[in-house]
Amino acid sequence: MNEGVFRVLEAAARGATRRTEIARISGEALSVVGEVLTRHPKWFEVEGKDIRVTKNAFTALGHELLGRLPSITSSPLAVSLSAIARKRPAPRRELDQVFATTETVARRVDRLISAGELQRGIAFLGDDDLTSLGLHLSGGQKRTTVFEIDERLVKLHREVADERGFDHRVIHHDLREPIDKKLRERFGCVFLDPPYAIEGFTLFLSRAIDLLKPDGRLYICFGTSRRASERGLAKQRVISDAGLFIEEVLPGFNEYDGALALGARSSLIIARMTPRAKPLMRGHVEGELYTSRSPNKGGAEEEE
Description:
- The chain is of the alpha/beta class.
- The chain has helices at residues 3-13, 19-26, 30-39, 55-67, 74-85, 102-114, 117-120, 131-137, 151-164, 198-211, 229-241; strands at 44-47, 50-53, 122-125, 144-148, 168-172, 187-192, 212-222, 244-255, 265-273, 302-303.
């Protein structure tokens, strides 16, 4: 469910009966409230200035709230995830792989589920941290999709998904190559912990935009040291030039077993698409993307 729709519906279900009241409680503009009322006539009964929610609305809201509620708490999730993480191969520095702590992954999972992102369709551009598997371990029943260049991680993701019956699609793909047209504009959310180098950061952001629906959101892990803040400024400029609107910044949200040059932490930036959103890189891309040397190219193999 779109976040604006959810907020409007929740406000009305709490007892708000006027458009202005719904706008105030939901935090959405009056124009958004009006659009929701128009698009979902089965959810609302409008008599003059009074607005009431229907049984259909309560049913829809109930399903959405259940989908946003993790089935286990963060601490047990971290324990369950640790067992899988122990099977993970050593990080490849040439791919800028630095693993987030399991506690960080648990925080990400709670945030994504409570925001309804799993319900809207979520893709990961690389997932050496195993956040997508954490979503399933927490009780997520919706499909997750991962684009991963490292064939070792592709194998691990698929093995875990097969063993546990997760609806987890893993696509072995080098993002230097374009995203399959059939998958573009299919996702409500894309999560990425992109390369540190500005070229890799820009490419990952561009591929995320290709995947997103017009109302989609990005969760971007973004780290920079205080002694090199100009590099962070350049990445902020990329986000702006791509036509994305930053909704929220959570400093120090991600902690890593490594990345000491960045203080072993990065922020989580939540941005959303706007009508001006556009990829800054298109088609096949040549050149360096990572801090170190380039990896061998991955394929475009996919397994459902």
